[in-house]
Amino acid sequence: MKKKIRTPTTLAIVLVIAIVAIAGGYFAMKGVPTPTYTLTTHVYPPGSGSVSPSSGTYEQGTSVTLTASPAPSYAFDYWSGDASGTSSTTTIIINSDKDVTANFKKITYTLTTRISPLGSGSVSPSSGTYKQGTSLTLTATTTSGYLFDHWGGDAFGTSPSVTITMNSDKDVTAYFKEEIVDGKILDMMCPSSVEGITPFMISVEVQNTGNVESNFEVELSALDLEIVSRPTSKIIAPGKLKAFEFTARPIYTGQPEVSTTLHFNVVADGRIVDSRSWILKIFMPKLEFTVFEIEPVTEWFGRWWVFKLDLELTNLGKASATNVWIKATLLEGVTIADEDSAYIEYLGPGSFYSTTLTLDYAAFHTYRISIEGRCYEGSYDLRKSDEFMAYPDLGTLQSILSALSWIITFI
Known about the structure:
By secondary structure, the protein is mainly beta. It has four domains: about 35-105; about 110-180; about 185-285, Immunoglobulin-like, CATH 2.60.40.10; about 285-395, Sandwich (Immunoglobulin-like). It is about 10% helix and about 60% strand. Strands 16-23-22-18-20 form a five-stranded mixed β-sheet, with no helix packed on it. The longest helix is centred in the N-terminal third of the chain and has 23 residues, at about 10-30. The N and C termini lie far apart (about 235 Å).
């Protein structure tokens, strides 16, 4: 049997191992502390959000969950530094000092606008990307022949301008409607018959049946009528009414009765939108001399030669004649030698008026007699004689001379 020989080196190694083992046990019994590390967090851009926990000191090996919370109008984007990922929460192991940044982004939304029907107008702004919370005013502009009607989709109202808040993607439609210019005669006040040439009133009530404010006129034309006054054009709002008034006067035609047609046109913005007709009966007086007798006579007391005119004027028309006058004129060439007249205040249909007028004349002169009957309503009758030689009434003169001779003899 061989004996193991321990050398000094071997003994030294064994001694060291023993010392280390004894020391380890000692320090283990004493509790040596675990290393700690610092967590630091940042937010980018500043004010865009927060991180929880925001910072702190942690022992080696600690698992820490970080949560990113966005501020209003922001959204979490991603982690950077000693953390990564796009989830708003992330877990890191603290095995060294950690520096973590939470990156946020400004929230933006898309605006989309549409037009209905196509080509009827436009919207400004028409589209775009806007930050959350942006207040945006949309304005609708019409093209010729259209009117703005209302907003639809993510906007509402009937005003051409509307304000929306971009808190989500917005899809807005501007609805337009075709411009309608139209109108009609709603009522007419016009007599069915009139007498004489006295002016009368006509009223036409017009309604705007379109959807746009328009300039309206009413045109009136008729035979046998003089339009004394016409109304001016008028602006009428949709659905509203306005009256147009005319003053008309019948024109004397010489006929006891005339039926005439009144033609009305309603014109809106230069275009005829309605037409109507109205039948009007016009009754007139008709004056006519039914008796026409002229007799030369001799009168006493300075009127030696006189034409005596027995006249009868009859109203053969269908309307009364007022302010009638009869005039007899004795003309020598173009010179008025004498005249006489009579006045009739009223002469009804079918009635007559008799009168006697006298005209002085000089014997053996050439004359022409004109007799005229006229009334305010326009009717008249005119009779003219041919030129003739005026001879004295010798029979009457003989009687006068005989009487004078008798008187002289008696004296």
